[in-house]
Write a structure and sequence with these properties.
By secondary structure, the protein is of the alpha+beta class. It has 2 domains: about 35 residues; about 50 residues, no CATH class. The protein is about 55% helix and about 25% strand.
């Protein structure tokens, strides 16, 4: 009886593992199909960093409403990406 219980539990765990692995494979396939476009915004480097952010904030908010996602900031450059809409 105990042997059958162990086999049943093993079969259930194995089946659940297969289901989850196929879900992750499907998710990876969708990610591979995603295409991105990129945008670089050159900020005006005037004053302190705090003043610069305050000055650039309206532009950044506008880009966010257009679907652009801020990826990184290097020096005075803002790098954005967004999914290409088909």
């Amino acid at each position: 009886m105990k042997k059958n219980y162990c086999r049943l539990m093993f079969a259930i765990v194995f089946a659940v593992g297969l289901m989850f692995s196929s879900v992750f494979v499907c998710a990876d396939e969708n990610v591979a199909e995603t295409q991105w476009e990129y945008k670089i915004v050159y900020a005006k480097a005037k004053g302190t960093m705090k003043q610069q952010v305050k000055q650039d904030q309206p532009v950044l908010n506008k880009l966010g409403k257009q679907g652009w996602e801020l990826v990184t900031v290097q020096y005075s450059n803002y790098y954005f990406k967004r999914r290409i809409r088909k």
